[in-house]
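WARN no homologs supplied; continuing
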Amino acid sequence: MTPLAPLAAIHALAASPVGRATAPAEPAASLVQSVDWLAIAPPTIAAAVGLVILVADLFVPDSKKAYLGYGAIAGLAVAVLSLAPLRKGDRSTFCLTTAPDACSYTADRFALAIQFLVLGGALLTALLSVTETRKRLPAGEYWFLLLSSAAGAALLPASRDLATLVVALEVASLPAFALVGLRRGDRMSSEAALKFFLSSVTATAVMLLGVSFVYATTGSLHLTQIAGRLDDVPAQLEILAQAGVALTLVGFAFKTAAVPFHFWVPDTYVGAPLPVAAYLSVVGKAVGFSGLILVTVIAFPAYADIWGPALAVFAALTMTVGNVAAVRQSAARSWSAVRLLAWSSVAQAGYILVPIAAAAYSSDDQIGSTVAYALMYAIVNLGAFAVVALVARTSPRNRIADYRGLYATRPVTALVMGFFLLCLAGLPPGVIGLFAKVTVFSAAVDAGLGWLAVIMAVNVVIALYYYLRWTALLFRAPEGAETGGSGAAGTGAAGDLATAAPVRHRAPALVMATIAVTAAAGILLSGWPQLVLRLATTDLF
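OK structure emitted
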């Protein structure tokens, strides 16, 4: 008998009337997943516009490259508006046909809040970037990379399986490496990109190892199924499951710049173009924290006794190291303004970690405090970076000392910058910053983490020093005015030069628009904090 004889006999039996009579056909379950295009619209729009701009760059002459930036701004604005039809937060897609409750993409209230943050942050970054792309950066590549990273960042909070989560994280991160090093011929930019790349690749490798351990233990990649199966892990796989949870957390700790995995932040922010540094400080952090929330609160609640204390320690270390390093920044050091904001972002990451750690001891309702704080931080930090980008046009060394007497030349900008710094410090009139810190503090107290609340209180006091020092510098008399008051130094032509008001250069309209939008949002939220703080008492999942 030939090897094909059994197959021929089966085929003949199936074709015969007897075969058809004895084997009634049953409709097979479809393996084709339905796609809810409205649910996936925000990241899809950002990605599609990025591809269009990349192709259009081949045909647009150099004199018209600015239109690529306007196209990117329009695309991000449409992506933000596409969130409006999803505001109910009840849509899911890419679900398993055999288990409809296990979906890869869910547009719930948590996902929509983070998507609004990252797409809005990318939109403000685009406004800051138009001037940079006209002179220093290749326009087509820049806009494509920014939109690609924004698409990945918008995909991540809606991801509900580990495969989609890792892919979204890398789609958000890989273009960011290139954005940091996009200033060709700049040694600092290349060095920053290399440090960022090596640290991020290490984090990804560690995280993938942890994900593989979790998959080997549970046999599933969907977060909800993992949560159910980790409740009943066989004894021989217990160590493997614990190692998988720990390694996954370490990978996300790199992404969130939590101490001791924060070493790449200062040099990366200094070497990157200022709009990219602003993007990383807000959108990059939102990506890391949203991924951390998804794996801990949804996938790993069975191991809350492991990740809860670990995140609490990470939070305490991160806020302390960030604030102490920010205090040590010298006002006369080159790029000290950016370095201070970089260390400040590390400290703020510590505050954002507190409610996630608290969720291990109470409930996932604490996650709303993290989202509320992240939204406040995104607005005021982007505004502060916008002011830094404005000042850097006349003071390229970007020292804190360069802000002395800013009120004399740009009074409105100085007032706005002072408002942003006070918001970050948590002092009136930055009421939204104060309320955000109170909600985080309350989350720690309610969870029984009194020691962490005390450490946070001490760090808030430490942070007051460098925020108030910078704020006071804005309103001091310029150096020339102090040296030209009287005596020989203040008479004659030399004295006239010393006391002359600094030259005021015309500010780019889009940079001023960014400052105005963030200032208006900060003032609105300070007067009506319920717009954001209601998230702190809402079940987002």
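The CA atoms of residues 223 and 295 lie 7 Å apart.
OK
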